Backbone:
């Protein structure tokens, strides 16, 4: 009875809402009276919205008695208008007419829109994406939306189980620069090891920023070291935080996986609960605001160890880690005058995780039967603190605009191990340990000046600036019992099983400084032809100086066809973690435990081998593209690219203790194998990005269709060796390690999406095709993961003007990667981490409120 009453009440509420709505139509134009295509039109305080067509017109059925519209478009100042009359006409002014708009990444001209940028830029509206998809964190959201972006959920990869690495165009995680509101975001302190994508790289943890705090994400798919500095070889990801006011948004989300491979009677696992709240307060009449977000996420374990088609069993526990994540973020601006304002933004993230390590079976000589008569499954736990804060001043100085800011960020990663033991202590061993960890901090002082000369030909924008950056890195030891062998004569293993703690000899503190100066200009020679250039000088206290440049052009061949191209040089200084990381850990090769030394760059081992000090990577990047609007509802972008990276920093192959050159040194250190960081490879990437969008009125609604694809071919042109290892290229950086680098992205990824909206009902169907990749097992045999297509389905319905309900499934047909013997994989499961994931079908439901 109560259920029927609830159904009737909801239907009546929906009917009442329909009754009070009215049809609103209008046109959005720019300052010159030309239609603004793709402008976002949202009814304030509701989930109701649409976008303008190629004639700048829109039609929207309101859900409130006195509708007010929020209108925005990249490169223009946002506006709010009263739409109670049913018809509106809005003229958007360029963002350069007033301070405050975040520039589109790839250009320092404040009135440069994404459609006329000389570089390819993706603009991803997080409001739309989070409403219509099942993914909850930023990495996974982008993985299934942006074709050139790749992020793999890791399993069996120690620290990378807790921090997902991400890449652009198949390059390394540390070759993409991440900005927040245009300011450099600090990297994670973690070095990715084992079978992860981005093996041997550091990267930026995008998941510390809750999706609920983000207005949009801009992805510059082009080399940009000359514009933004080190790490921008593959491109730039700019996260723009929300600045909305007088609007409360709340979301509650829950989902779970179909537990196909569990050995117990559970039908679902990997429960994922997320709740968030966002609200903005306006302060005065000059655009001051404070916008704040809180977000909580609990992601539970999945269990995928019991795979019937695999030949062996390496682990009893295998699957996603459990993650508990709490975030708070703030974005604010305080007007000092009509031409000046002070801004503050940033936030904090606290993450705790539990990840499965390799099983120690009952008869394992690393087990103590008195403690674990049935063997044990160690748990590697993480305690991660991440925080950032940016404060700055933007003001007008005559015709110039000045931006002065200070940015501080910190990432601290502490390891723990539980459900474990130190076998050298026998039956008296503790079962949990503090294993140590590492921390990376960054402080950036940035000064930028921008001026637009409207009377120089068709417009000239000039920018210049300087930056000072200091970085600190520390690695600290765990408690003694986590690494010490208390009975070496017995042959017992040292330290905590699952993850030996860092030793005092691993511990280090390091820092470096960087100073930079840049200048860039964009000249509209005619209304159809744009020329741009950038020059940047940087000096590192530990690597010396570098000078890089970028040239770009865009030419409108016709009213509907535009040609664009860029050429740039780039660089990336090795991270402090890559230079200073040192560890002795346990790896499993064909199921057998092996002690491995990862020696820091200036260690005794690397010096004896003659491995030179790490130096910066350099790159050459070319992009040529074509953009077109065909008819009134079809748009197309084609961008081909070439990226050459020289002296790429990689993690070498592992050298064994019986090696004729390095063996005696390893035996003296009591380790079985060793590997290290080196500038060992030159790589070359050739690829194509394609985005095709179409809008079609269908019945009383509208169907938006998008085809987005990335085709990428990465080759390793040359392997460099040196010192005592000269001539041993295949052993120094062998086929197995090369395969991990190449597998950072599939050779192609194709995304086909159909999004239909009619009245209060919406449906989205998305197909993602992941191309085949090849890895190599411990014996040198190829492991070919076949291409797969995943299918997502989402249904959404507006229950009331302010309340929306969404249900759906990702990977609705429950596709899994190709199965392998767990003894052959790097992770000990039936799969290595591949792009499509290995958890199967995911069901989800969301309730979204907007007031």
Residues:
């Amino acid at each position: 009875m109560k259920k029927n009453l609830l159904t009737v009440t909801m239907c009546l509420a929906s009917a009442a809402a329909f009754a009070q709505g009215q049809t609103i139509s209008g046109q959005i134009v720019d300052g010159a009276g030309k239609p603004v295509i793709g402008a976002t039109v949202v009814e304030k305080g509701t989930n109701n919205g649409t976008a303008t067509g190629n004639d700048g017109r829109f039609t929207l059925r309101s859900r409130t008695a006195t509708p007010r519209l929020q209108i925005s478009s990249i490169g223009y100042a946002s506006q709010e208008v009263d739409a109670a009359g049913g018809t509106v006409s809005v003229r958007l002014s360029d963002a350069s007419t007033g301070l405050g708009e975040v520039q589109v990444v790839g250009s320092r001209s404040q009135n440069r829109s994404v459609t006329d940028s000389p570089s390819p830029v993706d603009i991803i509206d997080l409001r739309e994406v989070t409403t219509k998809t099942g993914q909850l964190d930023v990495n996974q959201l982008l993985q299934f939306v942006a074709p050139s972006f790749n992020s793999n959920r890791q399993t069996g990869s120690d620290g990378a189980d807790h921090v997902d690495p991400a890449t652009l165009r198949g390059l390394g995680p540390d070759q993409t620069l991440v900005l927040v509101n245009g300011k450099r975001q600090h990297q994670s302190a973690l070095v990715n090891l084992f079978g992860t994508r981005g093996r041997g790289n550091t990267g930026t943890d995008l998941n510390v920023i809750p999706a609920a705090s983000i207005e949009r994400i801009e992805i510059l798919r082009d080399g940009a070291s000359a514009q933004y500095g080190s790490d921008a070889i593959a491109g730039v990801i700019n996260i723009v935080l929300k600045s909305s006011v007088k609007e409360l948004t709340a979301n509650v989300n829950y989902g779970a996986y179909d537990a196909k491979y569990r050995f117990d009677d559970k039908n679902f696992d990997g429960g994922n609960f997320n709740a968030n709240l966002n609200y903005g307060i306006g302060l005065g009449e000059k655009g001051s605001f404070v916008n704040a977000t809180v977000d909580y996420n609990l992601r539970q374990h999945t269990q995928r160890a019991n795979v019937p088609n695999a030949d062996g069993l390496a682990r009893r526990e295998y699957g996603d880690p459990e993650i508990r994540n709490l975030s708070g973020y703030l974005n604010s601006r305080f007007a000092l005058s009509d031409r000046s304002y002070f801004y503050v933004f940033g936030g904090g993230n606290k993450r705790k995780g539990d990840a499965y390590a390799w099983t120690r079976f009952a008869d394992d000589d690393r087990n103590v039967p008195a403690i674990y008569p049935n063997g044990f499954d160690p748990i590697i736990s993480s305690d991660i603190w991440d925080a950032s804060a940016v404060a700055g001043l933007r003001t007008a100085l005559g015709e110039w605009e000045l931006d002065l800011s200070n940015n501080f960020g910190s990432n601290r990663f502490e390891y723990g191990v539980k459900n474990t033991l130190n076998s050298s202590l026998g039956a008296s061993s503790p079962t949990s340990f503090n294993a140590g960890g590492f921390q990376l901090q960054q402080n950036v002082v940035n000064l930028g000046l921008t001026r637009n000369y409207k009377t120089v030909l068709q417009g000239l924008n000039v920018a210049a600036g300087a930056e000072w950056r200091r970085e600190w890195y520390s690695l600290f030891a765990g408690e003694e019992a986590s690494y010490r062998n208390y009975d070496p004569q017995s042959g017992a293993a040292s330290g905590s099983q699952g993850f030996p703690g860092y030793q005092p000899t691993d511990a280090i503190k390091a820092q470096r400084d960087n100073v930079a100066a840049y200048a860039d200009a964009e000249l509209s020679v005619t209304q159809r032809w744009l020329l741009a250039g950038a020059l940047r000088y940087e000096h590192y206290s530990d690597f010396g100086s570098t000078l890089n440049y970028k040239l770009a052009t865009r030419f409108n061949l016709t009213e509907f066809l535009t040609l664009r191209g860029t050429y740039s040089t780039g660089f990336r200084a090795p991270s402090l973690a890559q230079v200073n990381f040192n560890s002795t850990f346990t790896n499993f090769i064909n199921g057998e435990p092996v002690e491995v030394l990862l020696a820091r760059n200036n260690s005794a081992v690397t010096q004896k081998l003659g491995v030179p000090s790490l130096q910066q990577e350099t790159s050459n990047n070319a992009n040529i593209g074509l953009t077109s609007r065909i008819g009134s509802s079809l748009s197309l972008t084609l961008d081909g690219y070439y990226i050459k990276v020289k002296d790429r920093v990689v993690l070498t192959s592992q050298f064994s203790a019986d090696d004729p050159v390095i063996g005696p040194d390893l035996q003296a250190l009591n380790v079985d194998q060793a590997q290290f960081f080196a500038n060992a490879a030159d790589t070359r990437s050739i690829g194509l990005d394609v985005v095709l969008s179409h809008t079609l009125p269908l019945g009383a609604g509208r169907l938006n269709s998008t085809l987005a694809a990335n085709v990428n071919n990465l080759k390793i042109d040359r392997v460099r060796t040196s010192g005592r290892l000269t001539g041993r290229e295949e052993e120094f950086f062998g086929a197995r390690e090369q395969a991990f680098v190449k597998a950072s992205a599939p050779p192609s990824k194709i995304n086909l999406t159909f999004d239909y909206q009619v009245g209060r009902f919406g449906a989205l169907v998305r197909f993602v095709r992941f191309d085949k990749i090849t890895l190599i097992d411990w014996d040198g045999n190829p492991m070919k993961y076949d291409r797969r297509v995943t299918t997502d389905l989402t249904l959404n319905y507006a229950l009331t003007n302010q309340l929306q309900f969404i249900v759906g499934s990702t990977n609705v047909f429950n596709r899994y990667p190709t199965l392998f013997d767990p003894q052959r994989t790097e992770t000990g499961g039936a799969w290595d981490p591949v792009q499509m994931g290995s958890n199967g079908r995911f069901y989800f439901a969301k309730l979204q409120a907007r007031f």
